[in-house]
Amino acid sequence: MASTSDIKNGLCIKYNHDIYKIIEFLHVKPGKGPAFVRTKLKSLTTGKVIDNTFSAGHKIEDIRVETHKFQFLYAEGDSFHFMNAESFEQITLDKKILDAPDLLKEGENVMVAINTETDLPLSVDMPASVVLEVTYSEPGVKGNTSTNATKPATLETGAVVNVPLFINEGDKIKVDTASGSYIERVKE
């Protein structure tokens, strides 16, 4: 058993007969009244995100997890196939477990959290950023640059990201996997 002081991003807990992963949290100590922890929880079975508030000192049931490095092999409909980098064992995960499935490129390495009690995969942690090639983008028009102008660009995985006007087809860009936003252009 853990308490609210042990809450951190990525912690997996049992709550309301389901398993949740803590996405965001904030310890709040108002001037009046008791302290509490405001959290955003993502269900690892349905993918649904809920907001919840725990009072300070509240006991929470955490789940022991182990993380293993897996390589993304391929997607087949809503099923994503991964291979363990050490044992070469293959697993298939549902699309709703992934945080950013449209940014996952074949051969990409991810960390998979596995419940030690049931040996079932709970969640997939993507790298902080990925480098992807732009496959389609409208040409930027000169004169549209009075402010930080952006345009949509389709990436090699099919994801669409807003990029600055100077990005062209064939450019490689770095994308933040948490927000799905453009970070920078990558030079070879």
Automatic annotation (TrEMBL):
Boundaries of every Translation elongation factor P/YeiP central domain copy: 67-122
A Pfam family annotated for this UniProt entry: Elong-fact-P_C
SUPFAM superfamilies the record matches: Nucleic acid-binding proteins, Translation proteins SH3-like domain
Cited function: Involved in peptide bond synthesis. Stimulates efficient translation and peptide-bond synthesis on native or reconstituted 70S ribosomes in vitro. Probably functions indirectly by altering the affinity of the ribosome for aminoacyl-tRNA, thus increasing their reactivity as acceptors for peptidyl transferase.
Gene: efp
Listed InterPro entries: Elong-fact-P_C, NA-bd_OB-fold, Rib_uL2_dom2, Transl_elong_fac_P/YeiP, Transl_elong_KOW-like, Transl_elong_P/YeiP_cen, Transl_elong_P/YeiP_CS, Transl_elongation_fac_P
Name the record gives this protein: Elongation factor P
Pathway(s) annotated for this protein in UniProt: Protein biosynthesis; polypeptide chain elongation
HAMAP family: EF_P
Keyword Cytoplasm on entry: yes
Domain Elongation factor P C-terminal: residue ranges: 130-185
Keyword Ion transport: no
GO cellular component, one term: cytosol
One of the record's GO molecular function terms: translation elongation factor activity
A Gene Ontology BP annotation from the UniProt entry: peptide biosynthetic process
The organism's taxonomic lineage, starting at the top: Bacteria, Pseudomonadati, Bacteroidota, Flavobacteriia, Flavobacteriales
Compartments, record wording: Cytoplasm
Key words of the record: Cytoplasm, Elongation factor, Protein biosynthesis
PROSITE patterns: EFP
Family indicated by similarity: Belongs to the elongation factor P family.
